């Protein structure tokens, strides 16, 4: 990440990233399909944790309440994002290859979340309500992260996410 921010993604090679991480090119390639994938790894880990945590929420919670609680728990686990992450979001918006991969991952996580929401409702396949809820939740997270990076304000990402989720919560309570 640091190398991409300092030198620009197009100028950074996989070899340079592997060297900076203290691993061989082969080891890097065993874990990542390319520098774009490595760049997005942290966000993907958060999303996986989100799915895993949501799946364990109490059944008596509404799905939207469970989503909000899940976000808070994952945020507590991983903590606030640092300025490097904000730089990553800006970098992704300016590089089509990173943005495309990031959007593909968001779509993948949204599909998985849709199925988990449907399972909570005890239905065999997801309906429109489940898709809309998962899409709204993922959009709230994405919009909050973009807003936070653009504002460069004193508000934490957590505050912006909470505000974003509150805007949608009225529809799912």
TrEMBL record:
One of its GO terms (molecular function) is transcription cis-regulatory region binding. Residues 13-32 bind DNA. The keyword Transcription applies. It comes from the Bacteria. Residues 1-50 form the HTH tetR-type domain. Pfam families: TetR_C_14 (PF17754), TetR_N (PF00440). Keywords: DNA-binding, Transcription, Transcription regulation. This is TetR family transcriptional regulator.
């Amino acid at each position: 990440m640091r190398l991409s921010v300092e030198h620009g993604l197009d100028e950074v090679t996989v070899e340079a990233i592997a060297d900076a991480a203290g691993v061989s090119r082969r080891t890097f390639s065993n874990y990542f399909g390319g520098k774009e994938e490595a760049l997005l790894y942290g966000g993907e880990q958060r999303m996986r944790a989100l799915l895993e945590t949501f799946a364990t929420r109490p059944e008596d919670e509404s799905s939207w309440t469970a989503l909000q609680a899940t976000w808070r728990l994952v945020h507590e686990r991983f903590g606030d994002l640092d300025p490097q992450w904000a730089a990553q979001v800006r970098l992704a918006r300016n590089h089509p290859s990173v943005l495309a991969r990031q959007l593909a991952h968001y779509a993948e996580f949204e599909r998985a979340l849709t199925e988990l929401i449907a399972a909570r409702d005890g239905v065999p396949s997801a309906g429109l309500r489940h898709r809309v809820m998962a899409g709204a939740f993922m959009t709230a997270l994405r919009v909050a992260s973009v807003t936070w990076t653009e504002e460069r304000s004193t508000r934490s990402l957590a505050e912006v996410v909470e505000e974003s989720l509150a805007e949608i919560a009225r529809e799912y309570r």
